[in-house]
Write a structure and sequence with these properties.
Oligomer: single chain
Number of strands: 10
Distance between the termini: 67 Å
Number of domains: 1
Number of helices: 8
Length: 274
């Protein structure tokens, strides 16, 4: 088939979706592999799509908060568990879930659906942990962009902070980073920006926002976090990590300790508010 401009335009929406979502249903492990106590959870997004998650209990006798994790765009939550399970040893319950089309969750991912799934996950985590006073949203990559967008757009009680590790500024801006100049003019035609974090990052306040990004990130350039930080309102912080690549920052004990100290500070401050 000859590739014409007409044919290219027809295929662009499919290419746009493929750029953001790389789900699979392979099981890479479970919380039991790390000796963690957990419950399998099924719940529904706002349109009725059935989602799957894990409600994981901390191993520490001193509970700090519940962290709701929004994972990146590839594989599923069972592959991302390895990057966050350490938090269960440091006083945090964890709520992990899969967006639609990932793992055991039904449906197919798209921008609006994933956003709605994140909202549903926060509601479900709060429903399952009614006595919890502090929920922290921790998003990575695609999940980081959604963490900012969801908390900025939707009002939640008991959310004590947002961690955004390597977010992108907007769907269109990261798409333009990935395509050549020949296709750049079509990005605005086929990729919606309506759930992008840059629209609402200033509305995360007064909830504290922590942006974390490595200078060596080749997947999402650090300039995306820099622009989000410039638009965000206080309380906010930005950790620029020299030479770190995409999503490798919290493999280091130095940054694990720094994060735990920050999160404890957030929960203590929230507890002191009238």
């Amino acid at each position: 088939m000859k590739l014409t401009w007409h044919t290219l335009i027809l295929f662009l929406p499919l290419l746009a979706s493929a750029q953001f979502y790389y789900p699979d249903d392979k099981k890479y492990g479970s919380p039991a592999d790390f000796g963690l106590q957990y419950d399998d959870v099924t719940f529904r997004s706002s349109d009725g799509t059935e989602l799957h998650g894990w409600n994981i209990k901390t191993r520490s006798p001193e509970k700090v908060a519940t962290i709701i994790h929004f994972h990146g765009n590839a594989q599923n939550m069972s592959s991302h568990l390895r990057g966050v399970e350490w938090l269960a040893s440091r006083g945090f319950d964890l709520f992990l879930f899969d967006y639609r089309g990932y793992g055991r969750s039904a449906g197919k991912p798209d921008q609006d659906g994933v956003f709605d799934d994140c909202v549903a996950a926060i509601k479900q985590a709060q429903k399952l942990n009614p006595s919890e006073e502090h929920f922290i949203i921790y998003g990575q990559s695609l999940g980081a962009a959604n963490a900012i967008a969801v908390v900025g757009e939707t009002q939640f009680t008991k959310v004590s902070g947002v961690i955004a590790e390597a977010p992108f500024y907007s769907y269109q801006s990261i798409s333009r980073d990935k395509v050549n100049s020949l296709l750049d003019i079509f990005v605005g035609l086929v990729i919606s920006d309506r759930k992008s974090p840059h629209f609402v990052v200033q509305d995360v306040s007064p909830i504290p926002l922590l942006l974390v990004h490595g200078t060596g990130d080749r997947v999402i350039p650090i300039s995306h976090s820099q622009k989000l930080f410039a638009k965000a309102k206080s309380p906010k912080d930005f950790w620029t990590v020299p030479y770190a690549r995409h999503l490798g920052i919290f493999h280091e004990i130095e940054y694990q300790n720094k994060l735990v100290s920050t999160l404890k500070g957030w929960t203590e401050s929230a507890s002191e508010e009238p």
